[in-house]
Design brief:
The chain has 273 residues and is an alpha/beta fold. The chain has eight helices and 16 strands.
């Protein structure tokens, strides 16, 4: 079993959790209708709040989160592998975890991943982000088993840290998930380049569902969900509107790319500054 169909669900989430759950479920069903076996949603699937404080107010512990049981039931109903790109999971009175959930076709949580690298930046556009003020960063890379091969998990800003993806590839990952809510500014400049680079340098498929468009709180995200092959070809791309993209994945392409450019085998430690 080396071939399957993957889908990215692109969203424009708001601060209305219930509405976001309904929209995500509808698009997951649409992706299943297009034959997808593995479906991924973006970062902040159920909540795009105006700031960290508002996000805390509308977040829940994992045990009380209203979205997770519904996504688990949907995965079981549709008999799909479902990656919820991230939910804001309250882990203390002052912080959430930005957490991905991989759900199997029996509705079980097969893997969790907490975003490691947090986005703290002042952009020339005037936008300011301080994710670390209200988000507890993760500390562990995660590779999960799918029926077709191993999937390395990451979230959004992680994309800028190639050492994480190298670790995932050395851990056996042949697919890399990058659910994101990239800003319009940084997305235009770097989204395609970075995703194709992560695919090429690790000879792995990259599956990157995104938030896109102008959200109810005024935030602008880039969209352009992508599915990229190990040689760097773009197999599927979204625009800025909510919707679904699909692509057929044949993991024999990973073996072929790693034979042609065996850089993973040539990694070595070295000294220097």
């Amino acid at each position: 079993m080396s071939a399957f169909r993957a889908a990215c669900v692109q969203l424009r989430s708001s601060d209305d959790v219930e509405e976001n759950i309904r929209t995500a479920c509808d698009l997951i069903r649409e992706a299943k209708g297009q034959g997808a076996d593995f479906i991924a949603t973006p970062e902040n699937t159920t909540l795009m709040a105006v700031d960290g404080g508002a996000k805390l107010d509308k977040s829940f512990s994992e045990e009380r989160d209203p979205a997770l049981p519904r996504f688990r039931a949907l995965a079981e109903e549709l008999r799909i592998w479902l990656l919820i790109g991230s939910l804001a999971i309250k882990v203390s009175d002052s912080k959430t975890a930005n957490r991905s959930f991989l759900i199997d076709p029996k509705g079980r949580i097969a893997a969790r991943y907490d975003k490691i690298f947090l986005f703290d930046v002042d952009l020339p556009s005037g936008e300011t982000y301080r994710e670390s003020n209200t988000v507890a960063g993760g500390s562990t890379a995660v590779v999960a088993d799918l029926p077709w091969g191993k999937l390395g998990l990451s979230i959004c800003y992680d994309l800028r840290f190639p050492q994480l993806y190298r670790k995932l590839a050395h851990g056996g990952a042949v697919m890399l998930a990058v659910p994101s809510a990239f800003t319009e500014t940084t997305g235009k400049a770097h989204w395609h380049v970075l995703l194709r680079a992560r695919a090429i340098e690790n000879s792995a498929f990259v599956i990157a569902p995104a938030q896109g468009g102008t959200h109810a709180n005024g935030r602008q995200t880039y969209g352009h969900s992508l599915i990229v092959a190990p040689w760097g070809e773009i197999l599927g791309e979204g625009g800025t509107e909510p919707g679904v993209i699909v692509a057929d994945i044949d993991l024999d392409a990973v073996r072929s790319a790693r034979e042609r450019v065996p850089s993973l085998r040539h990694d070595r430690d070295f000294g220097g500054p």
